[in-house]
Amino acid sequence: MKEIISNSTFFGVMICIISYEIGLIIKRKWKKSFLNPLLISIVIVILILLAFHVDYDKFNEGAKYLSYLLTPATVCLAIPLYEQIALLKSNWKGIVAGISAGVLTSMVCVLGMSMLFQLSHEEYVTLLPKSITTAIGMGISEEMGGIVTITVAVIIVTGVLGNVIAELVCKLFRITDPIAKGIGIGTAAHAVGTSKALEMGEIEGAMSSLAVAVAGLMTVIAASIFAQFL
Amino acid sequence: MKFMKQFGIILFITFLGEVLKAVIPLPIPASIYGLMLMLIALMTGIVKIEDVKQAGRFLIEVMPMMFIPAAVGIIAAWPVLEPILGSVVIITIVSTVLVMGIAGRVTQFVNRIGRK
């Protein structure tokens, strides 16, 4: 069985799609916010790989064709954004202020807690770009001398976590404005969070898409400054 | 055919994003350049929304699944992650909650002042 799975071209994509569908079914049946389809599917796929002793690299040889679509899909985030462009124009001050505050919070948080846990400079810069989209985060981590594999893992965990807790955090901080919800989610949890924001509503999704791009760009500058602090 | 044509336009803009990434020496990925190019193309009318909408919607709808392979990659990164797992988990949870809450609150606050 292990050989068949390891050598299959289609197993990777198939298992991702099927486990995501299972995640959707579970979510629909029990309707709890922590029953997140993405989270469920990740757990299912990991369990299957472990159960059949399939190497991640073997799995990814097929599954990479799903990841391949991520770049064009991110480009398409411009579509919901374009459809809400009037809202962006009339609320740009709050949007810019919110994303700036979010990026600064992320930097200060990681710096403060890295000092608290006495992390090394290498570990600190590894975590610094954790809230932004993987492709930018990897670049920053590499440039600052971080451990890129951990950066990628932490970025993904941040995104999945943000996706799962988005509704709860909005409730907790009493964020009711759909623009503010989108900006918060996109700034904290990049594209993975954005997929949740898009489920919440068109405005949330559009603003979250915008926040992914803007927060990513701001972090390029902010991280290069903050990297010198520890 | 219509669907494939739309996908073709999207890939063309994605490719232009790759070109920009190759030319400009900044740590900005092709996807972000592509997103900006797509927005400019839509706003200037070079690309009409009908020419990309259906394929774009589909890609966005299935986007969560595209994160599964990378997320499963955590099992490959596990040996390097394990030694600092405790602090990484705490930092991740605290900063994600705070960043989301603060970015949202500040946006809401400034927008409300603006509307008064």
Question: Shape of chain B from CA axes?
Answer: extended
| Beginning-to-end CA distance, first to last residue of chain A | 49 Å
Indicate the structural class of chain A: mainly alpha
The count of β-strands of chain B is 0
Count of DSSP H/I helices of chain B: 7
Helix tally of chain A?
13
Query: What Rg of chain A do the Cα atoms give?
Result: 18 Å
The percentage helix of chain B is: over 70%
Most extensive chain interface and residues per partner: A-B, 111 and 74 residues
Model description:
The complex is a heterodimer of chains A (230) and B (116). Chain A is mostly helical. Chain A contains 13 helices and no strands. Chain B folds into two domains: 1-67, no CATH class; 79-116. Chain B contains seven helices and no strands. The longest helix of chain B is centred in the last third of the chain and has 31 residues, at 85-115. The mean pLDDT of chain B is 91.
